[in-house]
């Protein structure tokens, strides 16, 4: 594993905290600004949210601050670093998508990617499985 911490933090058990409330809470804890310094993606299906920091911060320290924060505890939320992955599933892809396009897209630094070792296209499901060479591309 790389010594570099993930730029993303997972918040679980978020149902008691509305998305805009969560964003303000994370701004208060981090001292940063949503959209400019970090993004928040809410995943209601699993009662979680992922904060990804655009601005470089010590995410391990941020997770520790969150775990000790009074409001986070009141909401009974938990925070942990998002683990790196070698493989992701891309969904809702257009019929015309090619493995070459997906490879170039997910290798783009602008898209948070890294070197791709394999792309498996599943046209009937409008999805693809993208496998990375390293623990880099995981957005």
TrEMBL record:
It comes from the Eukaryota. This is PAR14 polymerase. Gene3D superfamilies: 3.30.70.330. Pfam families: RRM_PARP14_2, RRM_PARP14_3. Residues 5-83 form the PARP14 second RRM domain.
């Amino acid at each position: 594993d790389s010594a570099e911490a993930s730029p993303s933090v997972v918040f679980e058990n978020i149902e008691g905290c509305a998305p805009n409330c969560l964003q303000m809470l994370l701004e208060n804890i981090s001292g940063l600004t949503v959209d400019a310094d970090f993004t928040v993606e809410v995943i209601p299906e699993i009662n979680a949210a992922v904060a990804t920091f655009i601005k470089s911060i010590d995410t391990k320290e941020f997770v520790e601050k969150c775990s000790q924060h009074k409001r986070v505890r009141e909401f009974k939320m938990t925070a942990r670093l998002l683990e790196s992955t070698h493989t992701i599933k891309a969904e809702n892809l257009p019929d015309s998508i090619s493995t070459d396009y997906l490879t170039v897209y997910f290798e783009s630094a602008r898209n948070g990617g890294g070197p791709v070792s394999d792309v498996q296209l599943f046209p009937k499901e409008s999805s693809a499985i993208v496998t990375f060479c390293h623990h880099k591309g995981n957005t």
